[in-house]
Every structure is written in structure tokens, then in C-alpha cells.
Write a structure and sequence with these properties.
It contains eight helices and nine strands. It is globular. The longest helix is centred in the last third of the chain and has 16 residues, at about 170-185. The protein has about 200 residues and is an alpha/beta fold. Strand 5 (about 70-75) and strand 6 (about 80-85) form a beta hairpin. Helix 1 packs across helix 7 (about 170-185). The structure holds guanosine-5'-monophosphate. Guanosine-5'-monophosphate binds near residues 72, 81, 102 and 106. Guanosine-5'-monophosphate binds near residues 72 and 102.
């Protein structure tokens, strides 16, 4: 197996800024491929099938589940979400990085199956900031916002299962932190076994 591709798993409460940070990372590192998840939730305005998600009905999702076609899957806010396995492994095999923006349940499944992954948790600087961000998006009802805030609190207990935590107070700093993590991971000896072997050859 090619050892140079990173499987980068990013989680954090909605409103923490994961989407923005992940998009910035993909610009900075063109070899990061984005895994498109499958979901049974309805598309939001502007979302495109095959771009934001693969939108599917329950029957299709359950069929994929029975075929063991997901690297991980979870039920989030009453809908299924899952990462199709084939694309992820294909990209890693080619030495590309793959980024998954998934919830904690899914991230823990990936950790079981692929412990070499890089697990990053993004947190907002405070509950008040998170609440403000959720409200200013103007996409969610009060009930949904309350649900997201209480989920964010529960999820904090899982941070210690991740490798890195990024506090997204200032966006540029958070992006910089995330880029530093990726650069350091790329330099790890265990990810460069092939390069090292080739270098040794040159000294023969
Ligand atoms: P949204 O419906 O707002 O796009 O996403 C809701 C939550 O589902 C977010 O926390 C997002 O990270 C998570 N999510 C998106 N895709 C997947 C996936 O493939 N697997 C898992 N476990 N969670 C996902």
C-alpha cells in the first residue's frame, strides 16, 4: 500500500467553521481529494447531487450498507450519512490525500478501521460564539439551534480521541494551524518509507 496519502478526518459542531477550513485546505493542498458522502437527507437549496453529497433514499442507502460499501456511516439528525469506501481507498492507493468531513460517530469508526488517519477536531472559541454563528446563518429554527448546541456540548467529551484540536477563533489562524498539521504529517517517517528507501539506494 502507498504510504504517502493521508486520510484526514475533520469533525466539529456545525457552526465551528469546518466547511470553510476544509475548503481553504483543499486550495492550499491540491492533492487533497474530497470524499463525497451519501446521505438520505433532502438537498438544501443550491446543493447538487454528486457535488455536495450523493442524495439517496433509505432503500439505496440500506442496500449499500448490506454490501459493506461504506468506510463508516452514522445517523445524524434522523438521517443516514456514510462515506463510500471504494473512492477513499482508491485515492489513498494512488498516494493522494483524502479529506472526510464527518461527525464523531463516523470518525470513531474510521479510527477503528484506519488508525493511521489524521483526526482533527475543530471547536468554536466559546458557546456564545457558536450560538451567534448558528443564529447568523439564519438557516435553522430555534429548536434546531438548541439541538445543535446541546449536541456540541456532548461532543466535547470525545475530543481526547482525536489527534489535534483547532480552536477557530480567528479563521486565518485556524487555517494556518490546520495547514501546519498536514505539513507535519506529510513529513512523518512512517509516511515516507518509500522515499527513504529510494534515498538509501542513491547512497549505495
Ligand atoms: P449536514 O446535513 O449539515 O450537511 O451535515 C450534518 C452532519 O453530518 C455534519 O456534522 C457532517 O459533518 C456530518 N456528515 C456529513 N457527511 C457524513 C458522513 O459521510 N458520515 C458521517 N458520519 N457524518 C457525516
Amino acid at each position: 500500500m502507498n504510504d504517502s496519502g493521508l486520510l484526514i478526518v475533520v469533525s466539529g459542531p456545525s457552526g465551528a467553521g469546518k466547511g470553510t477550513i476544509c475548503a481553504a485546505l483543499r486550495k492550499l493542498f491540491p492533492n487533497i481529494q474530497y470524499s463525497i458522502s451519501m446521505t438520505t437527507r433532502q438537498p438544501r437549496p443550491g446543493e447538487v447531487d454528486g457535488v455536495n453529497y450523493y442524495f439517496a433514499d433509505n432503500a439505496r442507502f440500506e442496500q449499500m450498507l448490506s454490501e459493506d460499501a461504506f468506510l463508516e456511516h452514522a445517523k445524524v439528525y434522523d438521517h443516514y450519512y456514510g462515506t463510500p469506501k471504494k473512492y477513499v481507498y482508491q485515492m489513498l492507493e494512488e498516494g493522494q490525500h483524502v479529506m472526510l468531513e464527518i461527525d464523531i460517530q463516523g470518525a470513531m469508526q474510521v479510527k477503528e478501521r484506519y488508525p493511521k488517519g489524521v483526526f482533527i477536531y475543530i471547536v468554536p472559541p466559546s458557546r456564545a460564539v457558536l450560538e451567534h454563528r448558528l443564529r447568523s446563518r439564519q438557516t435553522d429554527t430555534e429548536e434546531v439551534i438548541a439541538g445543535r448546541l446541546s449536541k456540541a456540548r456532548e461532543e466535547l467529551d470525545w475530543i481526547d480521541r482525536y489527534d489535534y484540536v483547532i480552536v477557530n477563533d480567528d479563521l486565518d489562524t485556524a487555517i494556518d494551524d490546520a495547514a501546519s498539521i498536514i505539513k507535519a504529517e506529510q513529513c512523518k517517517v512512517m509516511r515516507n518509507v518509500k522515499n527513504i528507501a529510494q534515498t538509501k539506494e542513491l547512497y549505495k
